[in-house]
What we know:
10 helices; elongated
Amino acid sequence: MRIQTLILLLALSTGSAAAIAQAPASAGTVVVKGALIKGKDKRRALDRKRFYLFKGGLGENQPLIDRIKAARITSRDCYYVGLKASPCLLAWLREENCETPFCRKVKREDIASVPEFQAAYDKGLTLYNRKADVAVSWLLNNIPANLVSGFYRQQKSLVATILGDLKPVQSTMTTSTAAEGNFVGVATGDKPTKYLVSNLLPVEIDDKSYVWACEVDVSRNKITSLPLSLDPKKKGCTLVVSDLKSCTAETCVKK
Length: 255
């Protein structure tokens, strides 16, 4: 049991093919594929996005889908504009479709271009005896918490509201290399078992947001592939599409 648990955790955190291959043979695997979902800038929109697995199909999970449709959404841009974040911080987040500064490493060349990074770096130099490497390493610790983790906390609260008393079977994060997420060790019987896969939280693509709720039949000893699309008529899926409010027209002027 401990070995199977370690395999499961490895697959959920890394999405590795090796972990899928070692998953319990009596269970099934679901691979969510989102590499083809791109915005106007051609960047993949489903890198580093969390998906959830639920028992039952669309019919059994209709109350969940209703809550997804009713959820009040604050877009990433509107959140940061509300905090008066600089246009350059927003531009940095957009570059790799990040939702928080934790999404990727802040490079030295980013510091001079983003006022929030520069202020945190300068503060770090004062705190850490002018040690530049330490100031860079601890840079996020010296940015106001609402800019670093506030959006994450808001999203976490929204997930709790959407879920209500419903508990997901598993959750997984898609990779930044292939935009794929793996659910391994999914319980099933002699016949295929129906499950629902959803990202719950809207994924922002250009001027719209998207939430998928797709049912899959999971079979023992098999890998079930779930390629996502922006086709609202895709069989077995409910696609919730919302218009995003435009919160800023400012552009980043880099130094």
